[in-house]
Amino acid sequence: MKKTSNIYIVLLLVFVLFGCSKKNEIKNDVITSKDSLSSYLTLANNFQSSKEKREEYNRKAFNIIKLQENDSLNRVNLFRVANRYYNMDNWKDFKVTVDLVLENSVSSKDSVNIAKSYTYLGDYYSTQAISESAFLNYSNAEKIYDKLDDTYNLAKTRLSKAYLRYGENDFSGSELEVFDALRVIKGEKANDILYESYNLLGVIYNEIGEFDNAITYHNKALSSIDDDVIALQFQSKATSLNNMGLVYQNLNKHKQAKIYFQQGLEQKNLSIDKVSLYAMLLDNLAYSKSKLKESDGLPDMFYKSLKIRDSLELTTGIFLNKIHLSEYFASKKDTVKAINYSKEALELSRRTKNFRNILGGLKQLAIIEPQKASVYTKEYIHINDSLQKAERNMGEKFTRIEYETDRIQEENTSLTAQNRNLVFIFSGLAMLGLFTFVIKTQKAKNRELLFKQQQQKANEEIYNLMISQQNTIEGIRIKEKKRVAQELHDGVLGRMFGIRMNLDSLNKIHDVTAVEKRNNYLTELKSIEQDIREISHDLNREKSELINNFVAIVDNLLEEQKKTFKPKLFTSIDRTIKWELLSNSIKINLYRIIQESLQNINKYAEANTIKVELKKIEEDLFLTISDDGNGFDVKKSKKGIGLQNIQSRTVECNGTVDIKSKKGNGTIITIAVPFENKQILT
């Protein structure tokens, strides 16, 4: 009976004592605002309402919170909702809430709440008797708290693992976990951790038969109780008094056990604060009294305890009560009742699949039904062997989980380091490659730019040479024409004028024939004189036109455009402008601007018509080039090399450029260049 009783005690500790942290949060929960969320959370915590109503309010609070932004307050509120579900034993919604807060914490890299979520999941799997999952989650939380150097929560998590190991009868593993918890809070004031650790150690030593150690640690637990840390309603003192009594029961010292049970029952508000503990103390006191052959209050105390446990559906407690009743009636020689209670206890343990309790029931039946003892003993041995094997396997699983968790963590750390190194290596290679590419690209651009500059310089030299050569030729032609004109004017016209004068003097002769001839000669001479004058004037006018060889070069460019490309070209060049007043550099830049613009139109515009106009307005020379092509976004295309060339050449001429274009509406480029010394033909 010893093991069965103590397993029940530790289950009580798991659900009653270790739940303190969650219930403390509820105790300190106050309304800080009148909004709906605070109202729902407060109503969900009102134990005067029915469980259904509290669940409804908690669900409404959850629906509000899950739609809010994932921040620290959101995660705190989700934990508040989870705590309320925990105290309602609503494990399904508790799990959903904790899963959400874990997801939010992971996405926010909130290590504190990630660890807290793992402890909550560990509590959930503990209630569902899924020990491996519970242990894994506690281990995950333990690793994070250790990294955060959060000694208090690290100790609590190790205690959770200790309770879990104890529940699976891994007593040595549980003991080690408790001492690991005590080690991290050494020197710190954490009376609640000390109490739980000492109390569990007392239960463990009682279970393995080290009763002196059990008494020592239960006394330490009693002395560590601090009402400022552990609220009175948790009835810590009554719990320790009950556990102390169980040690003396196992020692068959029922007088001492009875004293501790009675002191436990005397604790204030016990039957209100912890009804299950009250029923346990009542049953244990009745059991010790029956062993002492004391009949006062028996069997009513057993019945009262059983009734309470039935109402609370505490199956392990019900089992113990019925086993105690069976022993009690067996001692009273009431074999029928003794057998009935034993069989009811056995049936309950089979139905709940509590194999430890099954062993207790079989053992009791073997005692009170000796004629069937061999049958019960055979089944007892079979179940006990299977149970011990399962317990060993579970202990090994816990060890394996810890080992694999550590190994995975080491692998993750190693993998993280490898990934980091790979990132550094690839980043370095990428930067080196990019640097090499930039250098090569820049060198290529520089070579291209240098080539263009050299080409441009060569073109300008050729152009200047052409201009100079044409100027020389034109100078010679003009000089020759001027000489010829002077010869015609001064020589021929002079002689012709003398002849005309001589002939005119012959008019004094009144010979009819002579007069007629002379008149004819005079008329012919006048005609020759007029022709010569016209030739002279034409030669001087041709000199003025030929000197403007810039226009001829531009005309050649425009003619080439007409012959080579599809768009219709319309030109308008003011030929009265004194081009000789412009320097060659300005002419070159204007020529290149026209050439660059035509190239851009031919490449990109897809225009049908092009207009080129050169004219003077007041003291400025205007070059306008327009097309009806595709157009472009001026803001986005300002960095193009074509437009940059046009702008830079205009700047060299001390001029201004205006570019108007829109996609689908063609382009107009207007260049204004001042004449040198403000000299314009009027």
Protein described:
This protein has 682 residues and is mostly helical. Among the domains are: 420-546; 550-678, Heat Shock Protein 90. The protein is 75% helix and 5% strand. It contains 26 helices and five strands. The chain has helices at 2-17, 20-27, 36-44, 51-65, 72-87, 91-107, 111-127, 131-148, 151-167, 171-184, 191-207, 211-223, 236-250, 254-265, 270-273, 275-291, 300-312, 315-331, 335-352, 355-368, 373-505, 512-546, 549-564, 584-605, 634-637, 641-652, and strands spanning 568-573, 609-617, 620-627, 656-661, 667-674. Strands 1-2-3-5-4 form a five-stranded mixed β-sheet, with helices on one face. Helix 2 (20-27) crosses helix 5 (72-87), helix 9 packs parallel to helix 11 and helix 12 packs antiparallel against helix 13 (236-250). The longest helix is centred in the middle third of the chain and has 133 residues, at 373-505. The N and C termini lie far apart (131 Å). 33% of the residues are buried. Mean pLDDT is 80; it is low at 1-34, 542-547 and 677-682.
Write the layout of secondary structure elements.
Elements: H1 2-17, H2 20-27, H3 36-44, H4 51-65, H5 72-87, H6 91-107, H7 111-127, H8 131-148, H9 151-167, H10 171-184, H11 191-207, H12 211-223, H13 236-250, H14 254-265, H15 270-273, H16 275-291, H17 300-312, H18 315-331, H19 335-352, H20 355-368, H21 373-505, H22 512-546, H23 549-564, E1 568-573, H24 584-605, E2 609-617, E3 620-627, H25 634-637, H26 641-652, E4 656-661, E5 667-674
Parallel strand pairs: 1-2
Antiparallel strand pairs: 2-3, 3-5, 4-5
Helix pairs in contact: 1-9, 1-11, 1-13, 2-5, 3-4, 4-5, 5-6, 6-7, 7-8, 8-9, 8-21, 9-10, 9-11, 10-11, 11-12, 11-13, 12-13, 13-14, 13-16, 14-16, 16-17, 16-18, 17-18, 18-19, 18-20, 19-20, 20-21, 21-22, 23-24, 24-26
GO molecular function, one term: ATP binding
TPR repeats: 195-228
Catalytic activity: ATP + protein L-histidine = ADP + protein N-phospho-L-histidine
